[in-house]
Amino acid sequence: MRIDLNSDLGEGGDPRAMGDDATMLDLVTSANIACGGHAGDPETMFATLERAVARGVMIGAHPGYADREGFGRRVIPMPVPAIGRMVAAQIGALQGVAALAGAELRYVKPHGALANLASEDRGVAGAIVAAVAALPGRLAILAISGTVLEHAARAAGTEVFSEIFADRAYLPDGRLMPRSCAGAVLHDPDMVVARLVRFLETGLMPAAGGDPIRLSAHSVCVHGDTPGASAMARRLRSAITAAGVTVAPFLPG
């Protein structure tokens, strides 16, 4: 069995002070790089891309609502076609900087509130899939496992991979528990490690207030913006390897 480890990176404002990103890039196999919407700027993109290339880490675009104040975690009301244009513009910006860094984008993973909305809204999911399909490079989509976005990408013939979250709680319907709820983000390393190893063994994920839910996964997300993220990622990678699982990127075709 093999599994990818991904993290949301390039979200800081100063490319000279990205110590945590540099550490995370030594631990993950895929990097979701902010594209200037919820976070990121050309210099931060370039620095993150260079670091990822140097470490052989697969690169994905991480577009989100243009909401720096809310870090892309608030739904910004806008017409569905405008969401598609916003996503295309952000991915295109990262593609342009990647060309200067000698890097290749392989996939797209929506961020925050945009990802959550695409998980349940067919119109939004379709707009994202159409934007990704229209861009050069045959980009894949990394979608939250079992969601509308995953199904929309598959129906459109776009290559799609499934993602689970190591440090987030789930609802019984497979959605992530909203961050406004107590216990939505898991901070206990022992709990997170044990839960992930059990999932890899059984395919079942604990759900708040319900029975465990069955999910598929090609990739596991470890958030890079939470306290102790790099230490958590190191423990997860060690535990996965000890369980006989190969940590490797999911490699879009």
Q: What would you note in describing this structure?
A:
With 253 residues, this protein is of the alpha/beta class. It has one domain: TIM Barrel (Alpha-Beta Barrel), CATH 3.20.20.370. It is 39% helix and 19% strand. It contains eight helices and ten strands. The protein has helices spanning 19-25, 42-55, 80-101, 112-118, 122-134, 148-155, 189-202, 229-242, and strands at 2-9, 30-34, 58-62, 105-108, 140-144, 160-165, 204-207, 210-214, 219-221, 246-247. The protein has a seven-stranded parallel barrel, surrounded by five helices. Helix 3 (80-101) links the parallel strand 3 (58-62) and strand 4 (105-108). Helix 3 packs parallel to helix 5 and helix 7 (189-202) packs parallel to helix 8 (229-242). It is globular and about 40 Å long. The protein starts with a strand and ends in a 6-residue tail after the last strand. The model has no long low-confidence stretch (mean pLDDT 93).
